Protein backbone atom coordinates (compact mmCIF):
# COMPACT_ATOMS: atom_id res chain seq x y z
CA UNK A 1 0.00 0.00 0.00
CA UNK A 2 1.14 3.53 -0.75
CA UNK A 3 0.29 6.18 1.84
CA UNK A 4 0.21 9.83 0.78
CA UNK A 5 -0.60 13.15 2.41
CA UNK A 6 -2.04 15.87 0.23
CA UNK A 7 -3.05 19.51 0.33
CA UNK A 8 -1.53 22.80 1.43
CA UNK A 9 1.60 22.87 3.60
CA UNK A 10 0.73 22.15 7.25
CA UNK A 11 -2.88 21.39 6.26
CA UNK A 12 -2.32 17.98 4.63
CA UNK A 13 -4.87 15.20 4.76
CA UNK A 14 -4.24 11.44 4.58
CA UNK A 15 -4.72 9.53 1.36
CA UNK A 16 -3.80 6.34 -0.46
CA UNK A 17 -2.47 5.83 -3.98
CA UNK A 18 -4.08 2.74 -5.48
CA UNK A 19 -2.40 0.26 -7.80
CA UNK A 20 -3.80 2.00 -10.89
CA UNK A 21 -2.38 5.36 -9.76
CA UNK A 22 -5.71 6.76 -8.53
CA UNK A 23 -5.38 8.75 -5.33
CA UNK A 24 -8.15 8.70 -2.76
CA UNK A 25 -8.90 10.62 0.43
CA UNK A 26 -9.02 8.40 3.55
CA UNK A 27 -9.85 11.11 6.07
CA UNK A 28 -12.89 9.01 6.95
CA UNK A 29 -10.56 6.50 8.57
CA UNK A 30 -7.83 8.62 10.18
CA UNK A 31 -6.94 12.25 10.75
CA UNK A 32 -3.30 11.82 9.80
CA UNK A 33 -0.33 9.48 9.44
CA UNK A 34 1.29 10.28 12.75
CA UNK A 35 2.71 8.47 15.77
CA UNK A 36 -0.72 7.40 16.99
CA UNK A 37 -1.62 5.97 13.58
CA UNK A 38 1.46 3.76 13.38
CA UNK A 39 1.37 2.82 17.06
CA UNK A 40 -2.22 1.63 16.71
CA UNK A 41 -1.43 -0.79 13.86
CA UNK A 42 -2.97 1.76 11.52
CA UNK A 43 -1.65 0.20 8.32
CA UNK A 44 -3.37 -3.14 8.97
CA UNK A 45 -6.59 -1.47 10.08
CA UNK A 46 -6.59 0.90 7.09
CA UNK A 47 -6.15 -2.05 4.72
CA UNK A 48 -9.18 -3.74 6.27
CA UNK A 49 -11.22 -0.53 6.19
CA UNK A 50 -10.46 0.03 2.51
CA UNK A 51 -11.81 -3.39 1.58
CA UNK A 52 -15.32 -2.13 2.26
CA UNK A 53 -14.95 1.66 2.04
CA UNK A 54 -12.64 2.29 -0.91
CA UNK A 55 -15.42 3.04 -3.40
CA UNK A 56 -16.92 5.75 -1.18
CA UNK A 57 -13.65 7.66 -0.81
CA UNK A 58 -13.34 10.86 -2.81
CA UNK A 59 -10.66 11.02 -5.49
CA UNK A 60 -7.73 13.41 -5.37
CA UNK A 61 -6.73 15.38 -8.46
CA UNK A 62 -3.33 14.52 -9.91
CA UNK A 63 -2.50 18.25 -9.73
CA UNK A 64 -2.95 18.36 -5.96
CA UNK A 65 0.23 19.03 -3.97
CA UNK A 66 1.69 16.11 -2.06
CA UNK A 67 3.16 16.64 1.38
CA UNK A 68 5.51 14.41 3.33
CA UNK A 69 3.76 11.02 3.65
CA UNK A 70 4.51 11.05 7.39
CA UNK A 71 3.34 13.87 9.64
CA UNK A 72 6.30 15.45 11.39
CA UNK A 73 7.93 12.53 13.26
CA UNK A 74 9.58 12.73 16.65
CA UNK A 75 12.95 12.06 15.03
CA UNK A 76 14.64 12.09 11.64
CA UNK A 77 17.84 10.12 12.21
CA UNK A 78 20.48 9.92 9.50
CA UNK A 79 23.35 7.54 8.87
CA UNK A 80 26.55 9.09 7.56
CA UNK A 81 29.06 7.44 5.21
CA UNK A 82 26.92 4.30 4.84
CA UNK A 83 27.92 3.55 1.25
CA UNK A 84 31.44 2.27 0.71
CA UNK A 85 32.04 4.30 -2.47
CA UNK A 86 30.64 7.50 -0.92
CA UNK A 87 33.04 7.17 2.00
CA UNK A 88 35.83 6.81 -0.54
CA UNK A 89 34.84 9.94 -2.50
CA UNK A 90 34.64 11.85 0.80
CA UNK A 91 38.23 10.86 1.55
CA UNK A 92 37.20 8.81 4.58
CA UNK A 93 37.44 5.15 5.50
CA UNK A 94 34.17 3.20 5.90
CA UNK A 95 33.16 3.59 9.55
CA UNK A 96 33.46 0.73 12.05
CA UNK A 97 30.10 1.70 13.57
CA UNK A 98 27.15 3.56 12.02
CA UNK A 99 27.67 7.32 12.07
CA UNK A 100 24.54 8.91 13.56
CA UNK A 101 23.28 12.45 13.31
CA UNK A 102 19.92 14.19 13.50
CA UNK A 103 18.17 16.32 10.95
CA UNK A 104 15.63 18.78 12.34
CA UNK A 105 12.09 17.68 11.50
CA UNK A 106 11.28 21.31 10.60
CA UNK A 107 13.29 20.63 7.42
CA UNK A 108 10.66 18.14 6.19
CA UNK A 109 8.61 19.18 3.15
CA UNK A 110 6.73 17.51 0.32
CA UNK A 111 8.49 15.60 -2.45
CA UNK A 112 8.07 18.26 -5.12
CA UNK A 113 8.31 21.41 -3.02
CA UNK A 114 11.00 23.93 -3.92
CA UNK A 115 14.45 23.64 -2.39
CA UNK A 116 15.35 26.97 -0.82
CA UNK A 117 19.09 27.62 -0.65
CA UNK A 118 19.57 28.99 2.87
CA UNK A 119 20.77 32.45 3.70
CA UNK A 120 24.57 32.76 3.47
CA UNK A 121 24.90 29.34 1.86
CA UNK A 122 27.88 28.64 -0.38
CA UNK A 123 27.79 24.85 -0.69
CA UNK A 124 24.28 23.35 -0.81
CA UNK A 125 24.53 19.71 -1.95
CA UNK A 126 22.23 16.81 -2.88
CA UNK A 127 21.95 13.27 -1.43
CA UNK A 128 19.42 10.66 -2.59
CA UNK A 129 18.60 8.30 0.29
CA UNK A 130 16.35 5.44 1.32
CA UNK A 131 14.26 6.32 4.36
CA UNK A 132 12.94 3.66 6.74
CA UNK A 133 9.74 4.47 8.66
CA UNK A 134 9.40 2.85 12.06
CA UNK A 135 6.08 1.19 12.87
CA UNK A 136 6.29 0.46 16.58
CA UNK A 137 8.07 1.59 19.74
CA UNK A 138 11.48 -0.05 19.68
CA UNK A 139 14.44 -0.14 22.04
CA UNK A 140 17.34 -2.54 22.54
CA UNK A 141 16.23 -4.74 19.65
CA UNK A 142 18.46 -7.38 18.07
CA UNK A 143 19.22 -7.49 14.37
CA UNK A 144 16.92 -10.51 14.13
CA UNK A 145 14.07 -8.45 15.60
CA UNK A 146 14.80 -5.20 13.77
CA UNK A 147 12.77 -5.68 10.61
CA UNK A 148 9.63 -6.28 12.68
CA UNK A 149 9.86 -2.61 13.65
CA UNK A 150 9.57 -1.37 10.05
CA UNK A 151 6.32 0.13 8.76
CA UNK A 152 7.59 0.98 5.31
CA UNK A 153 10.01 2.95 3.16
CA UNK A 154 10.20 6.43 1.68
CA UNK A 155 12.35 8.41 -0.77
CA UNK A 156 14.40 11.17 0.87
CA UNK A 157 16.75 13.85 -0.48
CA UNK A 158 19.10 14.61 2.40
CA UNK A 159 20.11 18.10 1.31
CA UNK A 160 23.26 19.33 3.02
CA UNK A 161 25.05 22.67 3.29
CA UNK A 162 28.66 21.52 3.30
CA UNK A 163 30.23 24.69 4.71
CA UNK A 164 27.75 24.71 7.62
CA UNK A 165 28.27 20.96 8.07
CA UNK A 166 32.03 20.56 7.76
CA UNK A 167 33.80 23.91 7.86
CA UNK A 168 32.05 25.51 10.83
CA UNK A 169 32.46 24.45 14.46
CA UNK A 170 30.26 21.79 16.00
CA UNK A 171 28.21 18.88 14.74
CA UNK A 172 26.81 18.11 11.30
CA UNK A 173 23.22 18.90 12.28
CA UNK A 174 23.31 22.60 11.33
CA UNK A 175 24.39 21.74 7.79
CA UNK A 176 21.50 19.31 7.48
CA UNK A 177 18.53 21.05 9.05
CA UNK A 178 17.77 24.14 6.97
CA UNK A 179 14.16 24.63 5.90
CA UNK A 180 13.21 22.47 2.86
CA UNK A 181 16.29 20.24 3.31
CA UNK A 182 14.25 17.04 3.81
CA UNK A 183 11.73 16.40 1.03
CA UNK A 184 10.06 13.04 1.70
CA UNK A 185 7.87 11.01 -0.64
CA UNK A 186 5.91 10.92 -2.92
CA UNK A 187 4.54 8.15 -0.72
CA UNK A 188 5.30 5.76 2.09
CA UNK A 189 5.37 2.25 0.65
CA UNK A 190 4.48 -0.42 3.20
CA UNK A 191 7.17 -3.03 3.76
CA UNK A 192 5.17 -5.88 2.24
CA UNK A 193 5.63 -4.25 -1.20
CA UNK A 194 9.43 -4.04 -1.00
CA UNK A 195 10.99 -7.50 -1.37
CA UNK A 196 14.54 -6.57 -0.38
CA UNK A 197 15.30 -3.02 0.79
CA UNK A 198 18.99 -3.91 0.86
CA UNK A 199 18.95 -4.34 -2.93
CA UNK A 200 17.25 -1.30 -4.45
CA UNK A 201 18.48 0.90 -7.28
CA UNK A 202 18.55 4.60 -6.47
CA UNK A 203 19.50 7.57 -8.61
CA UNK A 204 19.60 11.37 -8.77
CA UNK A 205 19.78 13.75 -11.72
CA UNK A 206 20.79 17.40 -11.79
CA UNK A 207 19.34 19.34 -14.72
CA UNK A 208 18.77 16.03 -16.49
CA UNK A 209 22.30 14.71 -15.98
CA UNK A 210 22.73 11.60 -13.83
CA UNK A 211 24.88 12.38 -10.78
CA UNK A 212 24.11 9.41 -8.52
CA UNK A 213 23.31 5.89 -9.71
CA UNK A 214 23.84 3.07 -7.26
CA UNK A 215 22.19 0.31 -5.23
CA UNK A 216 21.55 -0.16 -1.54
CA UNK A 217 23.60 -3.36 -1.79
CA UNK A 218 26.59 -1.00 -1.34
CA UNK A 219 25.49 -0.33 2.26
CA UNK A 220 28.24 -0.56 4.84
CA UNK A 221 25.54 -1.37 7.43
CA UNK A 222 22.26 -2.90 6.26
CA UNK A 223 18.86 -1.83 7.52
CA UNK A 224 18.56 -4.43 10.29
CA UNK A 225 22.02 -3.51 11.57
CA UNK A 226 21.18 0.19 11.56
CA UNK A 227 17.85 -0.18 13.38
CA UNK A 228 19.34 -2.46 16.02
CA UNK A 229 22.32 -0.15 16.51
CA UNK A 230 20.24 3.01 16.92
CA UNK A 231 17.90 1.26 19.34
CA UNK A 232 20.79 0.67 21.75
CA UNK A 233 21.06 4.42 22.29
CA UNK A 234 17.52 5.77 22.00
CA UNK A 235 13.94 4.59 21.76
CA UNK A 236 12.55 4.65 18.25
CA UNK A 237 8.94 5.80 18.17
CA UNK A 238 6.24 4.94 15.63
CA UNK A 239 6.55 7.25 12.63
CA UNK A 240 10.25 7.99 13.17
CA UNK A 241 12.31 8.08 9.98
CA UNK A 242 15.80 6.65 9.59
CA UNK A 243 17.63 7.90 6.49
CA UNK A 244 20.17 5.28 5.54
CA UNK A 245 22.88 7.29 3.79
CA UNK A 246 23.72 8.34 0.25
CA UNK A 247 25.80 6.70 -2.51
CA UNK A 248 28.70 8.26 -4.38
CA UNK A 249 28.08 11.18 -6.75
CA UNK A 250 27.39 14.14 -4.45
CA UNK A 251 28.55 17.60 -5.46
CA UNK A 252 31.20 17.73 -2.74
CA UNK A 253 32.90 14.66 -4.23
CA UNK A 254 33.20 16.02 -7.77
CA UNK A 255 36.38 17.49 -9.23
CA UNK A 256 35.82 20.38 -9.44
CA UNK A 257 33.11 20.46 -6.78
CA UNK A 258 29.62 21.47 -7.90
CA UNK A 259 26.97 22.92 -5.62
CA UNK A 260 23.39 23.93 -6.24
CA UNK A 261 22.33 27.34 -7.54
CA UNK A 262 19.04 29.02 -8.30
CA UNK A 263 17.38 27.58 -11.39
CA UNK A 264 18.75 24.06 -10.96
CA UNK A 265 16.31 21.13 -11.04
CA UNK A 266 16.97 18.01 -8.98
CA UNK A 267 15.17 14.74 -9.75
CA UNK A 268 15.59 11.49 -7.84
CA UNK A 269 14.05 8.08 -7.36
CA UNK A 270 14.32 4.62 -5.82
CA UNK A 271 12.93 1.36 -7.20
CA UNK A 272 9.36 0.93 -5.96
CA UNK A 273 9.32 4.21 -4.05
CA UNK A 274 8.56 6.63 -6.86
CA UNK A 275 10.30 9.83 -7.84
CA UNK A 276 10.47 13.44 -6.71
CA UNK A 277 11.62 16.74 -8.18
CA UNK A 278 12.78 19.96 -6.54
CA UNK A 279 13.31 23.31 -8.22
CA UNK A 280 16.13 25.27 -6.60
CA UNK A 281 15.51 28.83 -5.45
CA UNK A 282 17.47 31.32 -3.39
CA UNK A 283 16.36 32.43 0.05
CA UNK A 284 14.49 35.72 -0.15
UniProtKB/TrEMBL annotation:
Residues 75-280 form the Fumarylacetoacetase-like C-terminal domain. It comes from the Bacteria. SUPFAM superfamilies: FAH (SSF56529). Keywords: Hydrolase, Metal-binding. InterPro entries: FAH, Fumarylacetoacetase-like_C, Fumarylacetoacetase_C_sf. One of its GO terms (molecular function) is hydrolase activity. Belongs to the FAH family. This is Fumarylacetoacetate hydrolase family protein.
Amino acid sequence: MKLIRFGELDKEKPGVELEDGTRINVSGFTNDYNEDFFAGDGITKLTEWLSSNKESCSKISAETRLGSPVKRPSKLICIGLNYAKHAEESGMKPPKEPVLFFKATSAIVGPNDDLIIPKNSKKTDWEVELGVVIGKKTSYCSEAEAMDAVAGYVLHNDYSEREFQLEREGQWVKGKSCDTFAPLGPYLVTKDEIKDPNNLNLWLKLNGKTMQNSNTSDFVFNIAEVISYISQFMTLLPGDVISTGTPFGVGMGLKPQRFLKEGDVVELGIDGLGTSKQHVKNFK
